[in-house]
Design goal:
34% of the residues lie in helices and 16% in strands. The chain is an alpha/beta fold. 45% of the residues are buried. The model is unreliable at 1-22, 169-185, 275-289 and 337-369 (pLDDT under 50).
Length: 518
């Protein structure tokens, strides 16, 4: 396989909560059309044009739109961009992603590290590649510092962010006249202070190692396209699968490198594809032998990973946090096996491999195949509010008009936008005769903090066991108990309107319009 002469980088920032149309925003850039680099000493021209970066960017854009729920209008796309155009796209991205729960940036193209190997730069098509390889000033003046890009991401969203770098970068000064690598290679290690909060970074290859350009798509991008749309995996699971696929495709010549800020909990609570798990035709009282065998393999792999991480640890806090995450995953799998008796069933009864329950999370809520339809009777179960008081939904929904809206998690960006929209328009909502009940799988304590922090004037149900979410048939994120963002208008005990992709910024207006129409 041929290697890209410089960086083919991919930056992807994902969040995994189920989002409305305005909540999934992406910036996708692919740069191929670089002019030849001319050696000023010999006058020899070296082609540095890339073959697959625009293909990679186009394919990722299409995957986001067609398979991962990004609206077309939420994807900012560019190819063969100059430095000025890259900054223009970054500004547009920051504006579009403000308050979003998912921010994704994909960059494929050249790049290089600084001469001291401490900083990383993405390269526009109008950059002076030869000069940048010899002069730090020219590099900074013609390229875009990765730290700046990460700064735009930090400002764009307070939600989870994932950074994927598909790179095979070298300083041009380190290359021979034929363009082959003389020494070094790959992406410089990212300093700890360059990784923003709640950000996961996956490099296509280990620091200072090269990544293949492949044919049509590089193996890293090919692995992204093949694995990210799969259901039943949180963010960490998804990117571990990407890593495994790259290693298999390259015979372990290319081994991706994963890094994240914080404990990793936010990534274990997030998924790329939302929706309920398919229900097996024949329910089983415990694990079948095929499932147990798959879990045994997972346990052995995690034990080996823990041992390796322990051997290589230098005592840094981030290493300890990563090790703790893997140990939690191991404990969760072991506890699940201990809680289920082994049973013998045909292999078709369960998938050969299934995602592990997230540590510190409830099992996925099965829910209904479809959310409650218009005309259906509202559920009559009981729950508990943010004050710990029992709420009889059957009684509360039997008279008048009530907006029951479901949201993933208290005090996250989109959920806060939605709640504050209802708060700010609450007088108009009351004037329309609408009561409001918000529902999520948060604890009573979390709902109370949410209410007090934003002065919310309505009821919040702490549906920790998922009973209300299930009763309304609201889908949950695979592997978590987090509810999709859906809204129902109940009048005299009947569903008269529903919004299966509720928009946080217009929740009050949409509910008022529905009440007037019904």
């Amino acid at each position: 396989m041929n290697s890209r002469p410089l960086l083919a980088a991919v930056l992807v920032f994902l969040s995994a909560l189920p989002l409305g149309a305005a909540e999934r925003v992406a910036l996708v850039i692919g740069n191929d059309a670089y002019p030849d680099a001319v050696d000023p000493a010999t006058g020899r021209a070296r082609p540095v044009k890339l073959d697959n970066c625009v293909n990679d960017a186009t394919a990722v854009r299409d995957m986001l739109r067609d398979q991962l729920g990004f609206p077309a209008e939420g994807i900012i796309f560019g190819q063969d961009l100059t430095r000025t155009q890259i900054y223009q796209k970054l500004e547009a991205f920051k504006k579009a992603a403000a308050g979003s729960e998912m921010a994704l940036v994909f960059y494929a193209g050249h790049g290089m590290e600084s001469l001291d190997g401490r900083e990383n730069f993405i390269i526009p098509v109008d950059a002076d590649l030869v000069g940048a390889g010899e002069s730090e000033a020219l590099l900074r003046g013609t390229a875009v510092n990765l730290t700046e890009v990460l700064g735009y991401v930090t400002k764009a969203t307070g939600g989870p962010k994932v950074v994927l770098l598909d790179c095979c970068r070298d300083r041009p000064a380190k290359r021979t006249a034929t363009g082959k690598v003389a020494e070094g290679g790959g992406l410089a290690q990212l300093p700890e202070d360059q990784i923003p909060a709640d950000t996961l970074i996956l490099l296509a290859a280990a620091p200072n190692k090269q990544a293949s350009d492949g044919r049509g798509h590089g193996p890293f991008t090919a692995a992204l396209l093949a694995n990210l749309p799969a259901r039943g995996q949180n963010l960490l699971d998804a990117f571990f699968k990407v890593s495994d696929a790259v290693q298999e495709a390259t015979g372990k010549q290319q081994i991706p490198w994963l890094k994240f800020d914080g404990s990793g909990t936010i990534f274990r609570q997030s998924a790329l594809v939302t929706g309920n798990a398919p229900v097996a035709a024949t329910p089983a009282p415990g694990m079948n032998t095929a499932e147990l065998a798959a879990r045994d393999r997972q346990i052995e792999e995690l034990k080996a990973q823990i041992a390796k991480m322990a051997r290589e640890s230098t005592g840094r806090a981030d290493q300890a946090a990563e090790l703790a995450v893997v140990k939690e995953q191991l404990t969760a799998i072991q506890e699940q096996i201990q809680s289920k008796p082994a049973v013998t069933m045909t292999p078709s009864a369960f998938p050969a491999t299934q995602p592990s329950p997230l540590p510190n999370q409830s099992s996925p809520i099965a829910g209904r195949a479809e959310p409650l339809a218009v005309g259906a009777a509202a559920p009559t179960l009981k729950s508990v509010d943010q004050n710990g008081k029992e709420v009889d939904l059957g009684k509360a929904l039997s008279s008048g008009t009530t907006l029951v809206y479901f949201y993933p998690k208290a005090d996250t960006p989109g959920c806060t936008t939605q709640a504050c929209n209802l708060r700010d328009e609450f007088e108009a909502v009351k004037a329309a005769g609408i009561k409001v009940i918000g529902v999520s799988a948060d604890t009573v304590e979390a709902q109370k903090k949410f209410e007090e922090k934003y002065s919310l004037p309505f009821t919040l149900l702490a549906d920790k066991d998922g009973a209300v979410i299930k009763a309304f048939g609201v889908p949950t994120i695979m592997g978590t108990s987090l509810a999709s963002r859906q809204s129902f208008l109940v009048k005299e005990g009947k569903i008269v309107w529903r919004e299966l992709k509720a928009t946080p910024k217009t929740q009050a207006k949409d509910a008022i319009a529905a009440a007037k129409a019904n």
